[in-house]
Amino acid sequence: MMENPSATASEALAQSVVAVMYANDAFSQWLGVELLEIRPHYAKLKMTVRDEMTNGFGVCHGGVTFSFADSALAFASNTAGKVTVSVENSITYPTRVMSGDVLCCVAEPLAIGRKLSTFQAHITRADGTLVGHFKGTVYHTEKEHQGLADTTT
Fold first, then answer.
1. Which CATH architecture has domain 9-51+58-144?
2. Is the pLDDT of residue 149 over 70?
């Protein structure tokens, strides 16, 4: 994901937070997650399902799809610069995912609160078919993200 030189301060902060998070997130990197769009309280990601992500039935393991959405939730919910952690998540799998499928996940808020917020994430195949509907609740701590570039200049 490229930095946008005309981004607002809140957009620049969101992009900086997620860049640092992603650089330290070995699991999202292993999944092959690509950051397509990051802005305050919003993340759009892409990944391709690989053979080693399938279960004994030759279908993408549900944990992979869940983890993809969980990464989107983490990125979207941490964009304000304070460490935010997940406290409850759920997912529905309306249709199967196969090796080779290119998935997109968009996470955005349903409700933003002072301490708790609820987000939803939709996971779709490249053809637009919904393959997962994820809902997550996060807790906003007072801890600032570390290692961020100065976004105020």
1. Roll (3.10)
2. no
